[in-house]
Design goal:
The protein has helices at 16-44, 48-55, 61-75, 89-118, 146-172; strands spanning 120-123, 130-133, 142-143. The chain has 182 residues and is mostly helical. The protein has a domain at 15-78 and 85-117 and 149-172.
């Protein structure tokens, strides 16, 4: 009887530090999605479950961020001059700037994550360096440092913290509340 060929295994399995970092990027990306969904709920002034249901329904991450940004622009839009006396215009403008800034950072992080997750990974034969290459493969990959992957993990974690803080601030003091003081 002929011996069966050995089952396929990625060469990257020999570099658990890279495997762990790539896995953490995926994990923290999912945590970022939850934080963004909660932020949408806070912008709308609805329960987190409702924000999650709306935000996580579309399957594309960038589309979800564009929905959040559009909702913030509609929710925190400037009122007419006649309403200005009663509305928290400065607070709403700052809230909108904060949401837009978080969305911009999230788009950048998610695009970096997509590249990392969807590229091919391997180890260069002669140097032993970890390399990655975009699909479809069109030649040799380029070396990828573990530092770059860990920087993205750090960026995702900072963004999650900032997004959760913004959601909490909106829950404690919604920017759309009418100020009835004269």
């Amino acid at each position: 009887m002929k011996k069966l060929q050995e089952e396929w295994r990625s060469y990257l399995e020999a570099r658990p530090d890279y495997v762990q970092a790539i896995g953490m990027i995926s994990i923290e990306n999912a945590n970022l999605e939850i934080a963004m969904a909660d932020l949408l709920g806070a912008v709308l002034g609805v329960r987190d479950e409702v924000g999650n249901a709306i935000y996580l329904t579309p399957r594309a991450a960038i589309l979800r961020l564009e929905i959040l940004e559009a909702v913030a622009k509609a929710q925190f839009r400037p009122k007419t001059e006649g309403d200005k006396f009663y509305e928290n215009e400065d607070g709403k403008a700052q809230a909108l700037r904060n949401v837009v800034a978080v969305v911009k950072r999230a788009k950048s992080a998610i695009n970096r994550r997509h590249t990392i997750i969807h590229d091919a990974w391997g180890i260069e034969d002669t140097t032993g360096q970890v390399i990655r290459a975009s699909l479809p493969l069109k030649g040799d990959g380029t070396p990828e440092s573990l530092r770059t992957l860990k920087a993205l993990i750090g960026d995702l974690r900072k963004l999650i913290t900032d997004t959760r803080s913004l959601s909490k601030a909106f829950r404690l003091k919604p920017p759309v509340l009418v100020d009835m003081r004269i």
